[in-house]
Amino acid sequence: MSCGLAPPGHTSSHVRKARGPPPPGAHHAKEAPHRPHRPHRPHRPGRPPPVLLDGSRDHVVALFRAVVGLLFACHGAATLFDVLGGPHGGRVPDIGQWPSWWAAVIQLAGGLLVAAGLFTRTAAVVCSGSMAYAYFTVHQPKGLLPIENGGESAAVFCWAFLLIAALGPGRWSLDALRAGRGEPREDARGALTHWRA
To answer: Residue 107: phi, psi to the nearest 5?
Structure first.
């Protein structure tokens, strides 16, 4: 007669079934999903790297400075000498007349200095300040925005000369020729790297 006890070393069938191997896929449950490898995209030939664009920086700065300076000088010459269509105010101002004559002198002299790249930063700051003064004293009382008060050219010249003062004369200028060196050059990341002789 059996009392229900198994002899030592003997394991019943239901115990073996309970301790059987884990179900298929159980040990793979916590593994990260497989991500397909993305191939490296080559550089597109239609988009030049920034270093190529940075190589023309000196030429762009010189061209921008020359165009803005010459246009500004033309305004001064028109007001002082009644040429190029004459002054916008209607008549040539008397010598020393405030502020028309002085503004025209700043336009002519400052514009030529900026165009040539001579004393560039100082001349650009003076030209920018003169246009800011003209905008707030002549145009601003007529309306809030430049499109309303006719001060578009004064506003554009003011900011253009302020940009020139911040950028400096550049390599192609009389200031660089006088100093015997160029302006500090920037690499593609915008950091100052070295002084060009």
So the answer is: -65, -45
**Which secondary structure element, helix H or strand E, spans residue 197, and what is its range?**
none
Please say whether the beta carbons of 161 and 150 come within 8 A: no
**Structural tokens at position 103:** 């503004």
State the total domains in the chain: 1
185 pLDDT tier (thresholds 50, 70, 90):
very low
Is 131 a residue whose pLDDT tops 80?
yes
Write down the pTM of the prediction.
0.63
What gap in Å lies between CA 104 and CA 180, rounded to an integer? 32
d(CA 164, CA 68) in angstroms, rounded, equals: 9
Q: Is residue 35 part of a domain?
A: no
Q: Which domain holds residue 61?
A: 57-185
Cβ-based neighbours of 70, under 8 Å, separated by 6 or more: 111, 115
